[in-house]
Each structure stands twice: as C-alpha cells, then as structure tokens.
Write a structure and sequence with these properties.
The complex is a heterodimer of chains A (259) and B (405). Chain A is α/β, with parallel strands linked by helices and 259 residues long. Chain A has one domain: HUPs (Rossmann fold, 3-Layer(aba) Sandwich), CATH 3.40.50.620. In chain A, 29% of the residues lie in helices and 27% in strands. Chain A has seven helices and 13 strands. In chain A, helix 2 packs across helix 5 and helix 3 packs across helix 4. The radius of gyration of chain A is 23 Å and the shape is globular. The relative contact order of chain A is 0.17. Chain B is α+β, with helices and mostly antiparallel strands and 405 residues long. Chain B has three domains: 114 residues, Orthogonal Bundle (Butyryl-Coa Dehydrogenase, subunit A, domain 1); 109 residues, Butyryl-CoA Dehydrogenase, subunit A, domain 2, CATH 2.40.110.10; 145 residues, Up-down Bundle (Butyryl-CoA Dehydrogenase, subunit A, domain 3), CATH 1.20.140.10. Chain B is built from eleven helices and ten strands. Chain B has a four-stranded mixed β-sheet. The longest helix of chain B has 37 residues. Classes of the chains: A alpha/beta (259), B alpha+beta (405). Chains A and B meet through helix 2 and helix 5 of A and helix 1 of B.
Chain lengths: 259, 405
C-alpha cells in the first residue's frame, strides 16, 4: 500500500496566540506537529504494517519548518516531502488543498490519504474533504476505527464518530480519510526513528515541481484582532442556609435577566 | 563548548517529556500518597528505550550520547524524582559501570538485557554504618574457589525491591594497607539464595520510588561476575558515582524548572492587594533566583555531559553540577511552596512534593558536604585525578550506533 499522511506544523498547544500590530504571533513558543495529525500518522503506520507498503508524510509550509515532518519520520514514516513556495505563504484552506492535491497527484498510485480531523490553529476541519473533492476521491471523515481494508479488492470500511453516534461507512480505494482521537493513542517517536529523522534531508516541492499555478485564495484575512477583554467580576452570595443562598441567587439571576 | 542541542537531542527531550507528562502526571500524586511505584513505570521505560538511551546499539541500547541521558533525567524529574531515580541507578550506577569496567562477556550477558529493560539493575554501596565514609564498609566477600561468598547489608538502595541485579562493592581484604584498597565490586544476581531485601517506608520524599535494604547471607557470586580487579572496588564505585551524580544533577535541574514553572503560573493567577502576586517585587526576586539557578544548573550538567561525550574525566565538574543543582532545587522548591502560600503547604499542588523530593538529592550520591570537600580539595590542589585503568568510553556516534554484526 502507498499511504500518504498529511501533517501540519502548529504552535505548541500551550502557546499564547495573540495579535500584535495586525499580525498573529505566538512569541517564541515552539512549533510542533498538529496533535490531531499524530493520530493520523498512527493510523497510517498501523495500516502499512498490516498490509505492507510505505507511508509518506506530506507537509506544507516554510522550507525550514520541518519539525512536524521530522516528528512523523521519527514515529516511523518511511519518507517525508515538504511543499513550500513563496506563493503559498498566507493562503486560505482551499488554496492549500489545491497544493496538497497536486502533490498527491504527483506521487505514484496513492491508495490512502490520511489527515488528522482538524488543525489546532485554524480549526476548520475542512482539509480532508477539500483534498478528496479535488482528487475526485471518497472522503471518509472523523474516522475512529478502520475495521476492514483490502488493498486487493480496493475497499475500505471505517467507523465514523459523529454527533449522533457511530456510523459504519464503506468506500472504494483510493480514499481520503480524517482520523480523530478515538482511533487510539499515537506512539512516541522511537530512538531509532529520532536518529533517522535527524539525519533526513526532506525534499522540497515548489509550485513548479507540482506543475500548478499559484492558487488564488478566495478567503482573505483583511484584519485580525484580539477578542475584546472581558471584565469579569465575582460576587459571593452569602446566607444562613443553603435555601436562603439559593433563593438569593435565583433572585439575582432573574434581576440580571440571565434567564 | 557548544551548548545548543542537536536535533536528535531535542527530539529525545521531547519524547521523554511527552511520556512523563502523558503517562505519569495523571497518577503520580496517588502513587506518592500510596508510597508505591506504579508497576508499569519501569517496563514502559524499558519498552520505550529510555533505560538504555545512552548505551551503544551493539549492547542493546539506543546509541544516544550522554547529554541525551541528562536531558531525559531533567524531563523525568520535572514530573517526579522517582522516575529520574530509575535512570540514576539502573543506567547511571549499573549499566554505565558495566560499560566502563565490564568485560565483553559481562556486557553481552548483562548490559544487553539491562539496556533493553529485560533486567532491572541497581547499585548497592552504602551500609547502615558507612555512606560518606565509604572506604569503611564492612560487608565482606571471601574467595572460595570459583566463587566469592558475600555477607553484609546494604542500606538506602534505590530499586532494592525491584532490581534483578546489583553492582555491589564489598571488602575482600580486611588487612589492606589502605582501607580503600581492600574493596572489590561484583555484579550480583538479586534472585540468588541468601539475598533478602525490602523497601523502607516513611521516607520524607521520593515516595513513589523504591528505596530499601538488601541483605547478603552467604551469597555465592561466580568469579566471572567480579567487576574490575580484586582491590579495585573503591575506584569502580567512585567512577560509578561520576555517572550517578551526573543524572542527579540533571534531574535536580528539572526539579528547579518544575518549581519555576509552577511558581510563574501561580503568581500570575493569584491576586493580593488588588493585583497578581507576580507584580510584587519580593515574589519577583524568588522567581529571578529560580530562573538563575535553572540556567546555571543546566549549563553545569551540560558541561559535565559534554566532557563525558569527549571521554574526558569529569569528577570535579560532575560533583560541582550535583552540588549546585541539588542545593538550588531544594531552595527553588521551598520558595515555590512559599509563593503558593497555604495551598503550597497541601498536596493539592505539586510543589510540596517537589520540596520533599528535593531533600533526598542533597544526601544521596555523595552528600553535599562531600561534594564541598571534593571541590575544596581540587581548588586547594590536594586532589588530582589519576588516570583509571578503564575510563568511561567517549561517545563515538558511529561506533555507538553500529549494530554488532
């Protein structure tokens, strides 16, 4: 099987992301692999182990921002490719999806493309569906398990975790899936993987390599701003008995027109 | 010296941090209250390769350098001292002693499973009546044909109750001209007849770790399990301390960092006199000292690790790193409790555990009084390192990571 897992580099989840002088910044917080993508890598590695084949980690970003791809390599991916081009800086989701879809088209017969269910920075959760649409492949999103996958008959059956509960869906390979937390804890990078990743030279594909024009964004971030600071005050309701406190609280809630 | 971490070292650091944060943090308070180590900890550390991180691949390890060992210790003790203690005794005192002094047969037979976590090791040196005054130990080993017969008791031994094998130093020559020349070190199978052991409870700190005693009664140890020559035990033991102390120094640095991070978070949250306490200068002074001590301690252990990587004797530098970091970690944890006020005095927050854990490191692996004597004797010119018959091998990336074909 030829599996591609798409990984994004995001600011550490503990980073404080703010807007300064019209630009988003997370200070000197480290960049890490998008935590959802670790589940995607885990799923890809498990399927490759079960059915043979290789896993390629695919990223999009600045050439030097390779932490996420190196993390994927250290977890066990066979190779990594970075899509990077000056024309791809500050693009919207759809433009990024076009670049990723072009990179997947450039690869040899991909059987399965795996995404994390969303990225913790932009949080749109749309990338898997957009790439699937662009490639003309089935999109099986929010996957929590892959109970059946047959590379010979080119079929896949997945369990989706959706608001209403679990949903079992079957599709044809090649397919695009997005994986959620229910899939199972991702493995840590192994020491051997770390050594391999540290030495790896990651090939960079620009727009020319992908054979596409610079995709024009349909969404522009004309202005970004910090959310307004909320002025929170705390009042302790006192009383002799719980009943008295509850009555005072209820009156207060009514008076403030909270309900 | 270049103190920037390599990409490999940074990734090792992150991997160990993720393990400790994800798998240990959720249960550590409960384990500390129960005064028990969670049973999964050591096997999991073995499975992940952490126990053999800096051992060459040919001996079952992961082929990383000594700085990676230090970084792992820092990350582990930033969560709990008991985790770092595992590396101190299993890797520092046992595995690295074998790497330095062991014969090829001993390395294949014991270092390999130690590095893979298939065997758990410890170092058994202190006795009820001799710790700092190590040359005065009374536990004995008498040669009887092809075996030595060991008798005596070892005290304050980390992992006493969970280890499979121990590096043990005993007196083989009670008539030696110098007490220190009458000692010999052995690798002892702790499942041997005559070995009894148990944990000590009621410790001030490191409650989630195993610390205990080991008694040897007519324990027969084959001659091939002698580490080094007869009479070389004092040197073997002291060189093992160079490695154990290094892990303690790096770990204590992690404890300073944990105290600092907890203090910064709390100081920004807690308000007095209408503003966060982080705006009060006396709190800022405490934070500043913790920050200074973290940076200084980190540089000192990285220097010791760099010297180890280069194969340069580092007794002086390692001892200094241990003294500075452990003293600073106790102060940092104490100030962290102070910053947390009443809440710091309860186990609702982690800082009281940091304080209890920090005290032990000022006593074990050579008390800080001993470290001061060592520093003074170097500074006064009373002490000069003589080359050892077997030095800790320098880190050689190619050799370390090459399979034994």
């Amino acid at each position: 099987m030829n599996i591609v897992v798409c990984v994004k580099q995001v600011p550490d989840s503990a980073a404080k992301v703010v807007v300064e002088e019209g630009h988003i910044t997370w200070g000197d917080a480290p960049l890490v692999i998008n935590p959802w993508d670790e589940y995607a890598v885990e799923a890809a590695l498990q399927k490759a182990k079960e059915h043979g084949g290789k896993v390629t980690a695919l990223g999009l970003g600045k050439e030097e921002e390779t932490e996420a791809l190196k993390h994927a390599l250290a977890m066990g991916c066979n190779e990594a490719i970075m899509i990077s081009d000056p024309a791809l800086v500050r693009i919207d989701n759809l433009a990024a999806a076009k670049a990723i879809a072009a990179a997947i088209r450039k690869m040899d017969e991909v059987d399965l493309v795996v995404f994390g269910k969303q990225a913790i920075d932009s949080d749109t959760g749309m990338m898997a569906a957009q790439v699937a649409r662009l490639l003309g492949l089935p999109a099986l999103t929010l996957v929590s398990a892959i109970p059946a996958l047959d590379p010979d008959s080119k079929t896949i059956r997945v369990v989706r975790s959706i608001e209403e509960g679990k949903q079992v869906v079957e599709g044809k390979l090649p397919a695009v899936i997005s994986v959620g937390k229910d899939y199972g804890e991702p493995r840590y990078p192994s020491f051997m993987g770390i050594r391999k990743a540290a030495r790896a030279t990651i090939p960079v594909w620009g727009l020319e390599d992908l054979g596409i024009e610079a995709p024009s964004p349909v969404v522009l971030w004309s202005e970004v701003m910090n959310p307004p600071v909320r002025d929170v005050t705390t009042e302790i309701i006192e009383g002799e008995t719980p009943k008295e406190i509850a009555e005072k609280l209820a009156d207060k809630i009514m008076a403030e027109k909270v309900i | 010296m270049d103190f920037d971490l390599t990409e490999e070292q940074s990734m090792v650091q992150k991997m160990v941090r993720d393990f400790a944060q994800k798998e240990i943090v959720p249960t550590i308070k409960e384990q500390d209250r129960k005064q028990e180590m969670a049973p999964f900890v050591i096997p999991r550390m073995g499975e992940l390769g952490i126990l053999g991180a800096c051992i060459p691949v040919r001996y079952g390890g992961q082929g990383m350098d000594y700085i990676s060992l230090g970084l792992a210790c820092e990350e582990l003790e930033a969560v709990d001292t008991s985790l770092r203690v595992v590396l101190s005794v299993h890797t520092g005192l046992c595995a690295l002693t074998l790497l330095q002094w062991g014969t090829e047969d001993q390395k294949q037979k014991y270092l390999n499973p130690l590095a893979k976590g298939e065997l758990v090791g410890c170092g058994a040196f202190s006795e009820p009546g001799a710790g700092s005054d190590f040359a005065n130990i009374v536990g004995s080993a008498k040669r009887d044909g092809d075996v030595y017969v060991l008798n005596g008791e070892k005290m304050w031994i980390s992992l006493a109750n969970v280890a499979d094998i121990a590096v043990v130093t005993m007196r083989t020559n009670p008539h030696a001209e110098k007490l220190s020349r009458g000692l010999t070190t052995f690798l002892v199978d702790l499942h041997s007849p005559g070995v009894t052991r148990d944990d000590i409870h009621g410790k001030l700190g490191v409650r989630a770790g195993s610390t205990g005693w080991i008694s040897f009664q007519d324990v027969r140890v084959p001659v091939e399990n002698r580490i080094g020559e007869e009479g070389e035990g004092f040197k073997v033991t002291m060189s093992s301390f160079d490695n154990g102390r290094y892990t303690v120094a790096a770990g204590a640095t992690g404890l300073i960092r944990a105290s600092l991070e907890a203090s910064v978070a709390y100081a920004k949250e807690r308000k007095t006199f209408g503003k966060p306490i982080s705006n009060h200068q006396m709190i800022q002074a405490k934070i500043a000292r913790m920050s200074r001590d973290y940076e200084a301690s980190r540089l000192l252990y990285l220097r010791a690790g760099t010297l180890k990587n280069q194969g340069i004797r580092n007794t002086r530098e390692t001892s200094l790193a241990k003294w500075v970091a452990t003293e600073a970690s106790f102060n940092a944890a104490s100030e962290a409790v102070q910053i947390h006020g009443g809440y710091g005095f309860s186990d609702e927050y982690n800082v009281e555990r940091y304080l209890r854990n920090a005290k032990g490191a000022m006593i074990y692996e050579g008390s800080n009084e001993i470290q001061q004597l060592i520093q003074a004797s170097y500074a006064l010119g009373y002490r000069k390192d003589k080359p050892l018959r077997r030095e800790l091998p320098a880190f050689d990336e190619e050799y370390w990571q090459e399979e034994n074909l």
